[in-house]
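User: Second chain of the day. Same drill as before.
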Amino acid sequence: MIVVSHDALGVLAWTASDFREALRWFQMAEEEQARFGGRWVGDISAKRKRLKSWQRSPTRLSSCFTNKKCQRAKDQLATEGEVTEG
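Assistant: Same format as last time:
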């Protein structure tokens, strides 16, 4: 139940364009799922890897940032020095 809840919190953060917080929840859910030896949520790793790749790829993020909803994520990552304007 805790793995599913943490995954759901990650999805909510992602929907709110808070990618850093979403990544944190997905990592937590993935670690717990591995520790408990279950497979309650099958796509945690895929979601986590997708967010990580977005953080490493300003090009991918820039396409997201054309959408106003994603502006918060751009601002957040830029202040962390992970994304530069292109």
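DSSP finds five helices and no strands in the chain.

User: Great, on to the next one.
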